[in-house]
Amino acid sequence: MATKAGERLDFDGGVQVIVTKGGEADISASSGGEGLKVGKRYQDEDSGIEVLVTKPGAVTLQCNGKDMALQEPKKTKSAD
After folding, report:
1. What would the pLDDT profile of 12-39 be if each residue is shown by its tens digit?
2. Are the C-beta atoms of 22 and 49 separated by less than 8 Å?
3. Which long-range contacts link 61-66 to residues 24+ away (Cβ below 8 Å)?
4. Which residues lie below 8 Å from residue 15, measured CB to CB, with a gap of 6+?
5. Quick check: 36 and 12 in contact, CB under 8 A?
């Protein structure tokens, strides 16, 4: 299933994410794991899909059955 940027996805337990970069893959959530926190971004390197968590919950996001990776904040140069 194709996902588009701006699309909202709802999962069990009230978890919600917004797709920030779409692609061709199925996004699902499995119970357990550390859980999702508001404002965190997750990505799948294979499909290029990226999502932003808008409603947290105790689930793990998966893309085509593989866990999505938490994106690290981008490093910026310090102003000296």
Report:
1. 888 999 999 999 999 999 988 788 999 9
2. yes
3. 61/17, 61/27, 61/28, 61/29, 61/36, 62/27, 62/28, 62/29, 62/30, 63/25, 63/26, 63/27, 63/28, 64/25, 64/26, 65/28
4. 29, 36, 53, 55, 56, 57, 59
5. no
- The pTM assigned to this predicted structure is 0.85
pLDDT the model gives residue 40: 95
Q: In which residue are the tokens 């909202």 written? A: 8
Q: Which of 79, 60, 57 lies closest to 69 in space, CA to CA?
A: 60
Domain coordinates in residue numbering, the chain: 2-70
With 80 as the cut, is the pLDDT of residue 49 above it?
yes
- The amino acid sitting at 43 is Q
